[in-house]
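Feature request, filed as a ticket because there's no other form

It would be nice if the structure record came with a short human-readable summary line next to the tokens. Right now we just get the raw output. Example of a typical job, pasted below so the devs can see what we mean:
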Amino acid sequence: MKSKDNLICPICKDDKKNLDDRYCNIHLKAKETLHKGYESWLKAYSILSWDDYLKQLLDLGDHVGDLIRDVVEYEFYFKEN
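Raw output as currently delivered:
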């Protein structure tokens, strides 16, 4: 049985449509966009870890959209081991 925590997005606490997803639909789309950006940065920088990419985006501050920043902060500060 799934716990109640598995039913909500850990970022915004909205209901998730698919219990297998980590985030709600809005933050899931933001994460997909984040991964596309990472692929582009990898082409430009050749070697860039996911954590370094997230740190770079955090350093950009307000130049990153709110939804992307939500996911970046969650991924960076609350990553699962």
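Something like this underneath would help us a lot:
Residues 23 and 81 are 17 Å apart (CA to CA).
The mean pLDDT is 89.
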